[in-house]
Amino acid sequence: MTTTWRDDPQGPQRIVCMTEETTEWLYLLGQEHRIVGISGYTVRPRRAREEKPKVSAFTSAKIDKILELQPDCVLGFSDMQADIASALVRHGVQVTIFNQRSVAEIFSTLYQVATMVGQGPQGLERIGAMQTQLCAIEAAVAQRVAAGARRPKVYFEEWDEPPISAIRWVSELLGIAGGDDCFPELAKERAGKQRIIADSMEIVRRNPDIVIGSWCGKKFRPENVAARAGWENVNAVRHGQLFEIKSCDILQPGPAALTDGVAQLHAIVTRWMDADQQGAFA
After folding, report:
1. If exposure means fewest CB atoms within 10 Å of the residue's CB, which of 85, 174, 205, 263 is most exposed?
2. Which residues of 169-191 are buried (b: 16+ CB within 10 A; e: fewer)?
3. CATH code, residues 10-119
4. pTM higher than 0.85, yes or no?
5. β-strands 163-165, 153-160 pairing
């Protein structure tokens, strides 16, 4: 009897990534050859859109197309993909749904994916580099504060109608970057519907110094924010501190948020700190 299992390569060989962060991570690990399908929302890395078939959105997927690809593993994110996962499992497909919400959970997920494809040591090395960079940002902020800089109050808006505040990893990265989340109590909630700000005037009462919008792929309109009823005296509006960070850079719980996303947060905050110390907001 001939056996072939001894020669099987390590880990899954035909992976469908239903969200962008696992696609980006596998490319960074040099394991893109394992990917056979991706999310239609994927933009990181850009070449993935040209190389891989798009088989899912976020809350929907082309089940038949995924089955045609004969994946030996499907990777997804959050309870919002539970129905897709259930349908695939009923077809006998191996599915792993991660549900990371914090920075620590993102790092844990990245390590798990790296080990699944036999890249544990490389994964740890890359994770260590990202953690070192976060520590460097945190230290730079501490140095500025010790020299007299104020930390701005920041309202991060994940959606505008209804207004939804920052998910936990964004809130945590904002803190590392030097800002204070205006709604830290909501960041603890795992579901978007639990982070809806029912009374939009509560945002006005908390009077953020900076407003950052990342409307889940919809273009952020600072002029619309500034024109909201009762917002004319909000510090961020009075001083023109309304900014956008693309959702692909901050709302994907993976490498993008931990590198480019936090760097953009830090740049916005440090510019505010510099201007504030120069008396621009007096």
Report:
1. 205
2. bbbbbbbbbbbbbbbeebbebee
3. 3.40.50.1980
4. yes
5. antiparallel
Say which residue the tokens 């980006």 belong to: 24
Q: What is d(CA 107, CA 84) in angstroms, rounded to the nearest whole number? A: 25
Residues with Cβ within 8 Å of residue 223, at least 6 apart in sequence = none
- Quote the CA–CA distance of 25 and 263 in Å, as a whole number: 18
Question: pLDDT tens digits for 147-177?
Answer: 999 999 999 999 999 999 999 999 999 999 9
Task: Provide the β-strand partners of residue 38.
Answer: 54
Which of 225, 208, 205 is CA-nearest to residue 161? 225
Amino acid at 217: G
> CATH assignment of 129-277, given 1.10.3720.10, 3.40.50.1980, 3.40.50.2300, 3.20.20.140?
3.40.50.1980
- Within 55-119, residue ranges assigned H as helices are 63-68, 82-90, 103-116
How far apart are alpha carbons 270 and 145 in whole angstroms? 11
Other beta carbons within 10 angstroms of residue 281's beta carbon come to 15
What DSSP designation does 194 have?
G
